[in-house]
Amino acid sequence: MWKFIVRRLFITLPQVILLSVLIFLMAQMMPGDALSGLIDPNIDPAAIEQQRENLGLNNPWYVQYTDWITGALQGDLGQSFRYKMPVTELVEQRLINTFWLSVATLLITYIIAIPLGITSGRYNDSWADQMITGYTYIGFATPLFIFALVMLWVFGYQLGWFPTGGSVAPGLEPGSFDYVLSKLQHLLLPAISMALITTVNTVQYLRSEIIDTKQKDFIITARAKGASESRVYNRHILRNSLLPIAAFFGFEITGLIGGTVFVENIFGYPGMGDLFIQSILLRDYSVVTAVVLLFGIASILGALISDIILSLVDPRIRIK
Amino acid sequence: MTKASWSKALFALMLVLLLALAACNSGGDSEESKGSDSEGSSEKDGDKEKESEDGLYSIDDFNAAKTNEGDAIEGGELNFGLVSDTAFEGTLNWNFYSGAPDAEVINWFDEPMLYNDENFLYTNDGPASYVVDDSGKVFTFTIKDNVNWHDGEPVKAEDWAYSFEVIGDAAYTGVRYGSDFTNIEGMEEYHAGEADSISGIEVVDEKTLKITFKESTPSLLTGGIWPYAMPKHIFKDIAVADMAESPEVRENPIGMGPFKVDSLVPGESVTYVKNEDYWQGEVNLDKVTLKVINPSTVVQALETGEVDLVDSFPVDQFPDNADMSNVEFLGMTDLAYTYIGFKLGTWDKEAKEVKPDDSMKMADVNLRKAMWHAVDNNAVGEKFYNGLRWNATTLIPPSHPEFHDAENPGVEYDPEKAKQILDEAGYEDVDGDGMRENPEGEELVINFASMSGGDTAEPLANYYIQSWEQVGLNVQLLDGRLQEFNTFYDRVGQSGDDDPAVDIFQGAWSVGYDVNPDGLYGRDALFNFPRYASEENDKLLEAGVSADSFDVEKRKKVYNEWQQLMVDEIPVFPTLYRSVLVPVNNRVQNYSIAVDWFDRYNLAVTAEEAPTAE
Description:
The complex is a heterodimer.
Chain A: H1 2-29, H2 45-55, H3 61-73, E1 79-80, E2 85-86, H4 87-122, H5 127-141, H6 144-158, H7 177-214, H8 217-224, H9 229-266, H10 272-281, H11 285-313
Antiparallel strand pairs in A: 1-2
Helix pairs in contact in A: 1-11, 4-5, 4-7, 4-9, 5-7, 6-7, 6-9, 7-9, 9-10, 9-11, 10-11
Chain B: H1 3-51, E1 77-83, H2 100-107, E2 128-132, E3 138-143, H3 157-168, H4 179-182, H5 187-191, E4 201-205, E5 208-212, H6 232-235, H7 240-243, H8 247-250, E6 259-265, E7 269-274, E8 287-293, H9 298-303, E9 309-310, H10 318-321, E10 327-342, E11 345-348, E12 353-356, H11 365-374, H12 377-385, E13 389-391, H13 415-424, E14 445-450, H14 457-470, E15 474-477, H15 485-492, E16 504-510, H16 518-521, H17 535-544, H18 552-569, E17 572-585, E18 588-589, E19 604-605
Parallel strand pairs in B: 1-8, 1-9, 14-15, 14-16
Antiparallel strand pairs in B: 2-3, 3-5, 4-5, 6-7, 7-8, 10-16, 10-17, 11-12, 13-17, 18-19
């Protein structure tokens, strides 16, 4: 087992390096740079050129890359031009928000997915199953950014149950009970919006898995031995059906990254997704490269986690 | 495989093919429908306006100051919405900020040492007053006695001088260091590290500062003197390079304004409390909360009273919300104009000046004039912007009422005149394809660069292209599409490498407080994208900032001549002037968006809770 994980990590390392080079080159190819948004007759072009020189933006790409990667290895991701602060600090601020948003989303995803998936799989082709599959089809078809806007409008503005923007109410003492409560309240609506859409994959997956397992020989054996229906479902079928879902967990993390970009923007929730989009638009390279690198590492780690879980579950797919 | 499963597989295959076909089809469809859609919607807009003339608005019907209704309560809280689809950067110091959102945040807790009047001239009403000597080069500033920082320390002359030292420092990380600073005696030596202090800046006593400039120009009085002080007692131990990221700038900034920063959530909200020791007098409100509001939800936030006022309102959402019952819309002319520019030369990187070139495609002034005659900008303003943008006439917008020449009609919409000019100049259709050739009889294709962004960008560009087609000019969108912001300015020449494929381009400028257009049309201005230069132009631009022009009447005359010169030579022609609209809840009193409004301490509300829309 450990051998497998170590071997898998060895593959991961060149992946990350290749990713970093690709990201850097692509960022370089984008037209404009952090200073090109400052086209303003009140700012002296010479001052802009001076800053370009100071920031090393006029150096060839491999020089810039070496500078960047040596910094990155020492934990220094450079300076954000736009925010005028170290990227590591900036990312740290935002990462905490996105982390909690993702945790909440994952929790809600599974809270919704597991009962729905079980009901739908156990009583397949009943009206309950049809309702649930109906919901999953709608979920597949609904774009997240429209759905999130509708949720915000209905629950945020019309009903007023949730705050409509930001990550915490202004003016609270950090660390106090009210502060934590307010944070929780602020991430609930974006998390629910995202979970309601992303959960449909898991529901469908679980449903077909249960239906599949139901017909396996060992279930027939269990029934033949006289096991009660609930025991058959809870002990035999559910256990076997949940394992692939657990393996799916790693990929779920990757999927969340795409989701946070939209949701954070709509809910004005300052997290990584929001930071990512804005940095691209404003060509704040040091932030773009850092964020993409983190996203990349998260996806690679997610895939790794999936692989590990899968290999635990199913010895046949261990990479030789 | 059995027969049944074969047929099932076949059926599945057919379905896949069907989907693929449908996908191809819908791709084609959507492209077509895009084209017809935009036409359709513009026609629809046209119909609507024909039905009701009320669909049009005029900036003249808006006030810059809020009408007060009812009696103000004592104290109270105000909620301010910062409309932005992103978090604000949080560089909360005048010397370091670069984005407009940060400026909105700073405005509540800090203010300039010098206030200005409606013509952007510095006055003596602010925290400091000034006297100029006879040479016009030496300014003496006196800071009023009761002006204090939020921590109780008095605002001193050395605090103001410190701003200059920080910006002039070689390690300074912002973009403010420019000609305003190099114009101070000894500044360049200080910047280069040759001097320990700036010889032109003298702290006379605790409250008196003297600054000596190299050149005296009227621009000094309209934003040419950096008006912001910086608390030296707080920043003196921080290295200049680290200031922008220090907690003194980002987490607990102080200023001298009517409100103090109480707490701050980075990038999303700030709460302010009343400054008990404000120099202008007793501050009315107890508390102000500022938070970021996404442009897509700003209407709901206003309707529910979640925010009382916002810093800016998307003008395209105004027609649908014009009758929102709980707010009053304030409006004024924006300090900006949209324009269409003609490439008349290139940028000489060595000499750092423009190099006009008579062989350029657009070099003939008659061609340019005909193109101006061919477009109906009033129709554009009415159809695309409900009258909230309108035909522009000269390159000094009416936001500068003193210098905008309202008498100058620019070049009017007259397609017949355009055709006549082209005929006379020799642009005739020789090969009979309906499009004019140039006087040499060669095919004339003009490449038009226009920026993407917003719903109207594409139909607007198409409208101009069609207008030119109607007078027989073949204008094509550069690469057949709109250009993204950064690409656009790269190709138009923000770094001096102009793309020769661009013949004409549509851009917009926001203009500064100072009316001097040298930064945009001067011979050595990189932002002079048309690459236009002429001796007459040089002469007028120089006269506009000469010592003689301290006399406003003389300066006016110079700039009227310059505006006329631009109408005659047409390196660019202005297309639209713009308006700014700001909704303010009915319970708010004494608010104004005028440029000479500095009375935040007077703000008041008439009720504890903001009324909601019905």
